[in-house]
Predict the 3D structure of the following.
Amino acid sequence: MPELPEVEAYRRLAEQSALGRRIAAVEAPDPWFLKGGVRACDVDAALVGSTLVAARRRGKLLLLDTDGGRTLGLRFGMTGRLAVDGTAGVDQLLYTSRRDEPVWDRFTLSFASGAGGLALASEAGRLGRLRVNDPRRLGGVVLDPDEGSLGPDALGVTPKQLAAALGRSAAPLKARLLDQARLAGVGNLMADELLWRAGLAPQRPAASLTPAEARRLHRQLRRTVELLIDRGGSHLGDLTPSRLPGGTCPRDGTPLARATVGGRTTWWCPEHQR
DNA sequence: ATTGTGGCCTGCCCGC
DNA sequence: TGCGGGCAGGCCACAA
């Protein structure tokens, strides 16, 4: 599902193929998908006529800046995909359909130029557009999102920032890693992969890590994020294929344990994750 | 403030 | 073959 690695792929796609293009029209057929009390006409007024000038990301939030000063924030939930013209941001997502149904296009920007131009857009299908296709409608669109409500991005987080994110909390380590206000970008699959690599049990109190364990966690966080960006998906870790009934630890063969931690289904190795 | 829970969304898959 | 129930998790509202 879209965690940091997928959204980074979306960001790169937008940066590569949507920057410099002028927004000619906005289609927002689903009011539910517009967050913060924003209406379709508000999005129209904010974006139409302006040009995309930057594609940024903070955690799982994609930020598209315009030369009009407004910023479009895109969230992808668990099943949201980004496509520009005919190109999808990622090959596939776990837990969602592989189909790309037009009715699942919850938000679309039509560009004035490029990829055939607006006049050809209807004939050329999806050219000249940036689309959010989301079967389950768990994503959403925000205007000028409050970036300060998110913690530091998990890609490039410093040991000090990670320590601050964990704080002196007695909450489970995994719950703290998933808390986007403290550390932005880690989702359920990446959290399990990361803790498996770091050899830390997900239900450990966040503040109980020794200095050596904290260093291990930081190193594995950086490595895991970079690895999954390279592989192109949060589900492409080494643990993921074993996260199912009967699954065993790829490292030592121990049957994996399963429980709900931090409100999410959690798989871990009871042997080497302590 | 901190932490946990439940609900929302809906496609898909399993078992009958 | 159709159908019902359970499942997936990001996010938010809400409660203790």
Observations:
- The mean pLDDT of chain A is 89.
